């Protein structure tokens, strides 16, 4: 009976985390969908937008296409982000739970198991959902009047049939994996460390009482948003060049002039650096990335924690 009770409890734990993580991902991505689209257009040097900045680009999308064009590709994004975020958050909780049994604390790094758990969770999620990200990027890159794809299934079938099968859907996967380790690792590590700091040293300003939680505290909403936003800024700063490389590889076959960026990660990195340098190439679109990443990660972590509380899951920690 005890074994059956444990299995039922674990099953409920996983289902609740999947739901909370998936909904948190959908909320965060919808919040920044317009910035996501202009980021893709700027990163990949769309001929219609490469001469524009962030806000002028957003205005141009509304003027040239429509207001709803700001959300182009967001349907595919929702199809991708629910399983992605659900898997990532749930995997983090599971990895964190099991890694806590081992002594992974490095001499100069407290809570290093959170970094390992976050990195592994990111790798797990991106491996399972990467083709949907490629499809979403293709749809978002299209400009009204120049549509090549008509929807998610059509995009997937066209890429599969004309660009080399399943391998084409995973174009840019290697730089994504390499970028995911620091991105997911530092996202979760930074959030968990800031959460620990708030609960241990400044609970009067950042926490509310919650007897159900470990430590008897829960972060208030402003603290959740601040911790999440800072975590997003740190993670994006470290992993951004690999994100640019991934996008250029994903979109390489949409234009004969950019096909050279589909030849491999290191070749693409080298080409971007040789043609545009570090600031205008590898960190192109970084300003917009801060504008979208900080609120996106803030909303993501905050919504996840709020939903966990609503589902009566523990959001505290040992302090």
TrEMBL record:
<keyword id="KW-0677">Repeat</keyword>
<dbReference type="Pfam" id="PF00153">
    <property type="entry name" value="Mito_carr"/>
</dbReference>
<keyword id="KW-0813">Transport</keyword>
<protein>
    <recommendedName>
        <fullName>Graves disease carrier protein</fullName>
    </recommendedName>
</protein>
<keyword id="KW-0812">Transmembrane</keyword>
<dbReference type="InterPro" id="IPR023395">
    <property type="entry name" value="MCP_dom_sf"/>
</dbReference>
<keyword id="KW-0496">Mitochondrion</keyword>
<dbReference type="InterPro" id="IPR002067">
    <property type="entry name" value="MCP"/>
</dbReference>
<dbReference type="GO" id="GO:0005743">
    <property type="term" value="C:mitochondrial inner membrane"/>
</dbReference>
<keyword id="KW-0999">Mitochondrion inner membrane</keyword>
<comment type="similarity">
    <text>Belongs to the mitochondrial carrier (TC 2.A.29) family.</text>
</comment>
<dbReference type="InterPro" id="IPR018108">
    <property type="entry name" value="MCP_transmembrane"/>
</dbReference>
<feature type="repeat" description="Solcar">
    <location>
        <begin position="12"/>
        <end position="98"/>
    </location>
</feature>
<keyword id="KW-0472">Membrane</keyword>
<feature type="repeat" description="Solcar">
    <location>
        <begin position="109"/>
        <end position="197"/>
    </location>
</feature>
<dbReference type="GO" id="GO:0055085">
    <property type="term" value="P:transmembrane transport"/>
</dbReference>
<feature type="repeat" description="Solcar">
    <location>
        <begin position="223"/>
        <end position="310"/>
    </location>
</feature>
<dbReference type="InterPro" id="IPR002167">
    <property type="entry name" value="GDC-like"/>
</dbReference>
């Amino acid at each position: 009976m005890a074994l059956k009770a444990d299995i039922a409890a674990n099953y409920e734990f996983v289902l609740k985390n999947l739901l909370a993580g998936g909904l948190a991902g959908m909320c965060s991505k919808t919040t920044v969908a317009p910035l996501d689209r202009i980021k893709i257009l700027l990163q990949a040097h769309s001929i219609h937008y490469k001469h524009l900045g962030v806000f002028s680009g957003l205005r141009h999308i509304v003027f040239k296409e429509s207001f709803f064009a700001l959300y182009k590709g967001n349907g595919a994004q929702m199809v991708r982000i629910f399983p992605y975020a659900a898997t990532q958050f749930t995997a983090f909780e599971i990895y964190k739970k099991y890694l806590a049994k081992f002594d992974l604390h490095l001499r100069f790094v407290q809570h290093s198991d959170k970094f390992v758990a976050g990195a592994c969770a990111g790798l797990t999620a991106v491996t399972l959902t990467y083709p949907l990200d490629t499809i979403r990027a293709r749809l978002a890159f299209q400009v009204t009047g120049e549509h090549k794809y008509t929807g998610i299934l059509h995009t997937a079938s066209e890429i599969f049939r004309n660009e080399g099968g399943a391998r084409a859907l995973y174009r840019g996967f290697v730089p994504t994996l390499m970028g995911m380790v620091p991105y997911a690792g530092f996202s979760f590590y930074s959030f968990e460390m800031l959460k620990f700091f708030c609960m241990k040293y400044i609970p009067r300003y950042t926490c509310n009482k919650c007897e159900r939680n470990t430590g008897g505290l829960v972060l208030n909403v402003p603290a959740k948003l601040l911790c999440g936003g800072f975590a997003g800024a740190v993670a994006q700063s470290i992993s951004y060049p690999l994100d640019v490389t991934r996008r250029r590889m994903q979109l390489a076959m949409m234009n004969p002039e950019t096909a050279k960026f589909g030849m491999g990660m290191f070749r693409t990195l080298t080409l971007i650096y040789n043609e545009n340098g570090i600031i205008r190439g590898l960190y192109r679109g970084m300003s917009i990335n801060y504008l979208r990443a900080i609120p996106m990660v803030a909303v993501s972590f905050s919504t996840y924690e709020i939903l966990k509380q609503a589902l009566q899951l523990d959001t505290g920690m040992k302090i």
